[in-house]
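In this section we walk through a basic example: taking a raw amino acid sequence and producing a predicted 3D structure, encoded as C-alpha cells. The instruction is simple. Fold the sequence below.
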Amino acid sequence: MSILYLLIPLSLILLGLAVWAFFWAVKNDQFEDLEGPAYRILFDDDANDIPPEQRRQDTTDGHNPPSERHAGNGDTGSVDSTPGGVKH
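The resulting C-alpha cell sequence is shown next.
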C-alpha cells in the first residue's frame, strides 16, 4: 500500500510531462501539415534529386526537360536482330 505514495506522484509527473510535450508541439507547429507526408510518397521526386542550380538552369533554358536529360548516350533502346540481341 505504501508504494502508492510513490506511484501516484510519479504518474502525475509523467502526465504533466506529456501535457507539456503536447502543448509544445502545438506551439511549434508540429501538427501543421498532417496530410502532406501521406501524399508525398505518391509524387515523383526526380526534380528534387538534381541540385538547385541545375534545376534553375533547366527552367530558364526550357529545352532540356528532365525526361530527356537522363537519356545518356543517345541510344534509342532498339535491339539488333542478331542472335542474342547483341548490338555490334
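Looking at the output, two observations stand out. The first helix runs from residue 4 to 27. Residues 12 and 56 are 54 Å apart (CA to CA). In the next section we compare this with other chains.
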